Amino acid sequence: MADDFHKPTQYSGDKFDTYEGGEDPAQILRVAHDTAHALVNRARETDDPAVLDRLVAYTDSHGIDAIAELWARAGARSLPGALWRIYLLRAVIRQDPAATSYAFQRGTEVLSTIDAAVAGAQAPTGPEEITELADQILRGLFRGDFGVALDRAAAFCRIMSAGCSSEADDAELTNPDRATELTTRAERFTITAEELTACARLYRSDSLE
Where is region (Disordered) located (predicted)? Predict the structure, then answer.
């Protein structure tokens, strides 16, 4: 973790690839759950758009480590775990929107599913559109249907996984190291999609704690 949590932290794709959750002591887990519920409740109780703007852009000012300190070690199938993953996705997108939008576009071209419609990105999806999508999904957690926002994030991850896998296939003969990197990233997106889908199911059964 960075020492100065108030400074924005550059969270690279490599860190996303290697991120793994962990077990927390009970007290830290309790803090994670309490702060996650407090944040969501605060956002849903206010009509002030400035509050929502600050929540969406929180990591722009304070860095992703400030969120990680609270939620990164929470279980994947929990409210803090879901919030952490979506904030992390937003950070990864904003870190390199050009590469992200390229992989996303590739994914929409190779997938024969409704994921593109579920994710809700404008087509064609360039850097500006992919950045806006990240903000829309995060806003949906605080303002719209929470389960729908999780479904959109999961669909985004599935599209990204397909896009990274397609890029990896292209690079396999000419740049095997790059192909391996992209394959690892695709696997990480697949796992995250599964985790977010599970969170959506738990939310709809009133079991997302």
Answer: 1-20
Residue 191 CB burial class (10 angstroms; 0-12, 13-18, ≥19): middle
Amino acid, res. 82: A
Tens-place pLDDT, residues 149-204: 999 999 999 999 999 999 999 999 999 999 999 999 999 999 999 999 999 999 99
Query: What is the residue type of 178?
Result: R
N- to C-terminal Cα distance for the chain? Answer: 26
- Residue 61 tokens read as 């000012």
Q: CA 209 to CA 188: how far, in whole Å?
A: 23
Instruction: Write the CA distances from 85 to 41, 130, 134, integer angstroms.
Output: 19, 17, 12
Print the SS3 string covering the chain.
CCCCCCCCCCCCHHHHHHCCCCCCCHHHHHHHHHHHHHHHHHHHHCCCHHHHHHHHCHHHHHCHHHHHHHHCCCCCCCHHHHHHHHHHHHHHHHHCHHHHHHHHHHHHHHCCCCHHHHHCCCCCCCHHHHHHHHHHHHHHHHCCCHHHHHHHHHHHHHHHHHHHHHHHHHHCCCCHHHHHHHHHHHHHHHHHHHHHHHHHHHHHCCCCC
